Amino acid sequence: MKKQRKITIADIAREAGVSAMTVSRYLNGKGPVAASTAERIKAIIERLQYNPNWLARSLSSKKSMIIGVTIPRIEHALLDNYIAQILSGVTDVALQNDYRIMLLPFNPEHGTDNEFSNWYHSKMFDGLILLKTMHRDPRIKSLAEQKIPFVLANHKYYAPDVHFIDVNNKLGIRLAVEYLVEKGRSRIAFVAGDLRETNARDRWNAFCKTMQEQNLTVNKEWVMHGQFNQEIAYRESEKLFRAKTIPDAVVCSDDYMALGVIRRIKERGLRIPDDVAVIGFDDIEIAAYIQPALTTVRQPIEKIGRLAAESLLKLLNGKADQPIRRLLSVQLIKRESA
């Protein structure tokens, strides 16, 4: 069988009636290409199923064509639906722009101030997306001071040369508490995430503020610290149901912790939502399929990853408005658990 010849930039240029340099400018996103010409080149690329030589492009552009993405060094991190959805959004944008991603496991609690910047200077990747970093992590400050291209995903940090994509966490918790009050609930407990993360801090602060606005008391005995961990939330939530008076609703900072709380409530022989209503945060895929289906605050997790990648590419191409700061909207999804 005759081996099929590999399609080249020259072939694309010949078909489009333009120079190879024009095709190269279109592929690299550098230099002017008329809109009509770009459409013609794109159609020919798709018809001929042209696949650019990734290594050659990286050598010619002096870029690695790789985006680094930090993920926490925890057990089963890639099985976490939240992390998987973020990575899905990042990967889609990366592949559409002929980039690849490199996963960079790190310890969110420990590391030298220059850990991330040293990775960058090793030329392994062109820029960074930081996922699951802690509040005021000095490694973030080091990146900003050295003007290294990076974007925080689901983390809010107002400082020069720091770019982030986050959601309106405070609105999400306010919607959850107000909904429970409308349903006649007044003894509302809270399961906090890791308060070293900005989204956990925002959700906790919003809970306290909204409870005050609703003339409700935040009972310290009904505040659990689940650390964004299902097993910890399950273990800690036992304390919620020991006393003679128990909460009639629980708001959780993420869905995994809500799953742990639901498991504990069922073991206590209580009914959901009749005895205790439960609301989560995220709307991970399994939330709609557990029994009872979980009422939760939906944040656009995959979109966070997608926008983080798009923002990083703008930084890499010098096309970003400084600074990039996006707060995406959230939505209360009403299901059976509340």
TrEMBL record:
Recorded superkingdom: Bacteria
GO MF entries: DNA-binding transcription factor activity; transcription cis-regulatory region binding
Keyword set includes Nucleotide-binding: no
Keyword field: DNA-binding, Transcription, Transcription regulation
Residue stretches making up the HTH lacI-type domain: 7-61
Gene3D superfamilies attached to this UniProt entry: 3.40.50.2300, lambda repressor-like DNA-binding domains (1.10.260.40)
HTH cro/C1-type domain segment(s): 3-55
Protein known as: Transcriptional regulator, LacI family
Source organism: Caldithrix abyssi DSM 13497
Taxonomy of the source species: Bacteria, Pseudomonadati, Calditrichota, Calditrichia, Calditrichales
Gene name, Swiss-Prot/TrEMBL: lacI
